[in-house]
Sequence to fold (261 residues):
Amino acid sequence: MERDEDLLRAYFSPSRDDIALEDIDLGRIPSHVSIIMDGNGRWAQARGLDRSKGHVAGVDSLRETVTTSVRLGLDALSVYAFSTENWKRPQREVELLMHLFATTLVKELPLFHQENVRLRFLGDLTALPKKTFDVFQQGLDETADHTGMTFALAVNYGSRAEMTRACRTLAERASAGTLDPADIDEAMVSSQLYTAGMPDPELLIRTSGELRLSNYLLWQLAYTEFYVTDMYWPDFDRWEFLRAIRSFQGRDRRFGGVINR
Ligand code: IPE
Ligand code: IPE
Ligand code: MG
Fold:
């Protein structure tokens, strides 16, 4: 994706003591970054606040992260907002989150227009409350013609459900006689996932220190580099994003092969 280097420099100025835009090789920015936005509840609890305040604060981090991604010229940013397991949370928290998704999306649509960001969703949206579903649909419709960065929001997303659904679809085609099982290859499986058509993430960031995937993009992350920060999601900002990219750029990506030195 194209980037405006003057805007980018201004955005990362003045730099921090430990990190500056100059520490990054702009020729090797990952094209797809994915984020497990974790730690909203702990952020709030550490301040004696209700968990819901953490979710509200997390919206600001997400807005900054979308802008940072556009400034850096990413092709795609995907974020995990609600898992298939998160329905287990207290009903009040689930309702608050669903409400927050709807109100935030409406509020942030001008940003998507301004930045030419195209929205997509990962997950089964049919299980969402009608209001949230309708607003998501509106977001899809209104940004469908945008040609800039893709912003993928994973809501009611679970990797196992995603893969199970893909298996079922292919099995149905096979039993209908329209698909020869011998023709099933990795590309065909990928094309049945919610991420169809998107390149796999090159960098996965997880906030709040947990060292697990929590049922997120199990197929797509096969060769992704991980960056885990102890920072809670509401504290995540453009500088921590830059640290993650600096770390990513210091890695040898071997994909099972060897690097010739
Ligand atoms: C991430 O923060 C947001 C969602 C899962 C919706 P959490 O709510 O999981 O916060 P912690 O992990 O309990 O601190
Ligand atoms: C993962 O966070 C899901 C999202 C960030 C949306 P969780 O807080 O649900 O994950 P666990 O329960 O710690 O594994
Ligand atoms: Mg959590």
User: Anything to note?
Assistant: The two ends are 30 Å apart (CA to CA). The domain at 29-158+200-249 is CATH 3.40.1180.10 (Undecaprenyl pyrophosphate synthetase).
